[in-house]
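Annex B.
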Amino acid sequence: MNKGSPGPTPGFLVWRLANKWRVAVDRAVAPLGLTHAQYVVVASLHGMQRAGERPSQRRLADHTGLEALYVSKLARVLESAGLIERTRDPRDPRAVQLALTEQGQAVTRQAIAVVQGLLQQLLEPLGGLDAPRTRAFTDELMALLDVPLAPSVPNDQSTRRRTP
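MarR family transcriptional regulator: predicted structure tokens.
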């Protein structure tokens, strides 16, 4: 950005904040043997299990916003590490259900505490986790996340139909 530019766009700032958060969480949970993406899976699974749900990989993907194939890959790695178990859904043999193991629950509780401290630190400029500005910021983020995006349309001239 140069002196003549109007400043960063909202999209650029969201991208920068998302990257800052991802790097910070990666560093914070690394001592627990997790990456940020793995943390998203185990923390979401923890919350869903506490609510009495044993989600499928697809349901967890929908919940987290991650691609289903990526959740499947993460789940296999987490299963190998002894943190989750993957079982066939008795109602749908094609679906795989996920659950935290006892070790997974312990690691996840530690990771959640670490990330909560990090979140408090990040939100301090807004007054902290329970501040009115943070609640307003959260509401704004939810409004943006609730907007459906139109599917992308190829812009290549060769894919367009031409009429004589």
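Helices lie at 10-29, 36-50, 57-64, 68-80, 102-123, 132-145. The longest strand covers residues 92-100. Further annotation is deferred to the next reporting cycle.
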